[in-house]
Amino acid sequence: MTIKAVVCDIGGVLEVIDDSVFPGPWPARLGLTDAGFAERLEGLDGDPVVGEVTWSEVLGHWRVRLGLDEDSAHALGEDFWRWYVGTPDEPLVAWFAGQRPARLTAILSNSGPGARERERHHGFEGMVDDLVYSHEVGLAKPDAAVYALAAARLGVRPAEVLFLDDVEVNVEAARAAGWHAVLHEETERSIAEMERIIGGA
What we know:
This protein is α/β, with parallel strands linked by helices and 201 residues long.
């Protein structure tokens, strides 16, 4: 069956994420190990990935758990977002944008409150037919329902979708939903494999 839609994840796929940015210097600055720092960030009353808490609630929780003043909490939040949005993988972004108009394009991202606004400067909204953020729809990968939702919003059958993600369980779930899916590990290989699938579908 012809591939009519190409769907990509953002973080770790269309964006290159630098894990030295966050938590970066914060654990040492606060006298914590990396594990201890990560533990302090846990314990929210809801899951931000499916929109159960706001960014203000997330940052407020971190501030209390880490014992930060307002300025330090703001700086922590800015470092988090600098890490989160990363930098575009230019060759992959160019290939993805170039799929239109021959095919529909979309983004399917496990995200948190504020992601759309913070990632807007990369211009993703202008290069896709749909952008599904988990925190906005209340569903996250690898839940089968989010794949069904994404395909329905594009108006395509599952077998007409090609998906790229850097998390194996998300790729396996996409395949279980009837999508063609590629595990992203290296840009050149991912593009070659997607071209192969498009050519053979």
